[in-house]
Amino acid sequence: MNITEEKLNKGIEEIKERGLVYQQTDDVRKSEITFYMGVDLTAESLHIGHLVPLKIVDILSKHGNKPIILLGEGTTMIGDPSMRNNERPMLEKSSIKRNMEFIKNQIKKISPNAIYVNNLDWISKTNFIDFLRDVASKFSVNQMVNLETFKNRLNNNLPLSFLEFSYPLLQSFDFLELYKKYDCELQIGGSDQWGNIINGVNLLKKSGAKSAYGITTPLLLRGGKKMGKTTSNPIWLDKNLTSCFDFWQFWRSIPDSDVESYMLKFTDLKKDQILEKIRNNINEAKKHLADCVTCWVHGKEISEEVRNKAEKIFEQGSEDAYLDLVCDFDGNNVSENGELLLYNLLFKKGLAKSLSDAKRKISDKSVKINGKVEMDYKYEINPEQDSILEIGKKLKFKLKFN
């Protein structure tokens, strides 16, 4: 069957061009489609890793596709075993419900036009015998034990409860219910959900659906490392867990190597516009990224407020307080010993307008490390030691290392 350009889904094409697609089952052969994104409720806030699928929701909606946000109250009671070596702690039902309300309000600010559903509404009303006959009968245990998570557990003699083993069936059941109620034919999830999504696609097809699709998103990496709630320093969307200032500063401080990828994913600029911004001034490009994401999550007023505050602190030295400064490692800012070079650090964090300006500040005795003036612009900061960086009389930073 030949697919004309008009029949290809423009939203799907855009998310692929922006690097938001990691895997997909098939090309979506409809100009418009109803799709859903499921949300786990094990925490009281989403983190920045969730912004990748939420950006897909944003883009697909813009192209006329219909979004559903599934709040997994029912499945969170079971606990998703994907990519885990042990069983998740079982949460109290009241905690799950509280998390759901927080997260629902959070997402509504980002995706206000989506349909919101709670899978407990159908899971709690499902007859167990009917579930086994209508859903479980369509799953092969032989295939399920070959799912990466289960295979790893069994090969390493790690515990695997029947509760966890049932999770892919329930997630697939969600997909089937949404297909029946909303004609939903596309599921979106993180890369760790590929096995669960494939099972859902197969269940729909075995249940009579003419078409069903799945898409997974890439992990959000910073300098090659995973970002999420399991990392040592997660960036939350809730301003009470991660301040709006720290949120903006996170995006402003990403490594140079991530700028193009992040701007493709999280701004509306086209690739040639992004490359031009980076060529002109990479630090201004980072500010544009920080503005876009902070505005999207927290609103324009807050975005402008925190940018003004950051510029006063970093560029005008108007604050007299210690701030955390996150430092990353890449091939352009480390020495042969793997330690950070001082002048590169000043430039890349926006504390100097250029490498020459950074060298000037150092030679002018304006820079101190741990209270001592440092005049060697190639001074190597050891990430194994706590360090205080001071620039002039007002800029003071505690260096943190990723």
Automatic annotation (TrEMBL):
<dbReference type="InterPro" id="IPR014729">
    <property type="entry name" value="Rossmann-like_a/b/a_fold"/>
</dbReference>
<keyword id="KW-0030">Aminoacyl-tRNA synthetase</keyword>
<keyword id="KW-0547">Nucleotide-binding</keyword>
<comment type="similarity">
    <text>Belongs to the class-I aminoacyl-tRNA synthetase family.</text>
</comment>
<dbReference type="InterPro" id="IPR036986">
    <property type="entry name" value="S4_RNA-bd_sf"/>
</dbReference>
<dbReference type="GO" id="GO:0006437">
    <property type="term" value="P:tyrosyl-tRNA aminoacylation"/>
</dbReference>
<dbReference type="GO" id="GO:0003723">
    <property type="term" value="F:RNA binding"/>
</dbReference>
<keyword id="KW-0694">RNA-binding</keyword>
<dbReference type="Pfam" id="PF01479">
    <property type="entry name" value="S4"/>
</dbReference>
<keyword id="KW-0067">ATP-binding</keyword>
<dbReference type="GO" id="GO:0004831">
    <property type="term" value="F:tyrosine-tRNA ligase activity"/>
</dbReference>
<dbReference type="InterPro" id="IPR002305">
    <property type="entry name" value="aa-tRNA-synth_Ic"/>
</dbReference>
<protein>
    <recommendedName>
        <fullName>Tyrosine--tRNA ligase</fullName>
        <ecNumber>6.1.1.1</ecNumber>
    </recommendedName>
</protein>
<keyword id="KW-0648">Protein biosynthesis</keyword>
<dbReference type="Pfam" id="PF00579">
    <property type="entry name" value="tRNA-synt_1b"/>
</dbReference>
<feature type="domain" description="RNA-binding S4">
    <location>
        <begin position="344"/>
        <end position="384"/>
    </location>
</feature>
<dbReference type="GO" id="GO:0005829">
    <property type="term" value="C:cytosol"/>
</dbReference>
<keyword id="KW-0436">Ligase</keyword>
<dbReference type="InterPro" id="IPR002942">
    <property type="entry name" value="S4_RNA-bd"/>
</dbReference>
<dbReference type="InterPro" id="IPR024088">
    <property type="entry name" value="Tyr-tRNA-ligase_bac-type"/>
</dbReference>
<dbReference type="InterPro" id="IPR002307">
    <property type="entry name" value="Tyr-tRNA-ligase"/>
</dbReference>
<dbReference type="GO" id="GO:0005524">
    <property type="term" value="F:ATP binding"/>
</dbReference>
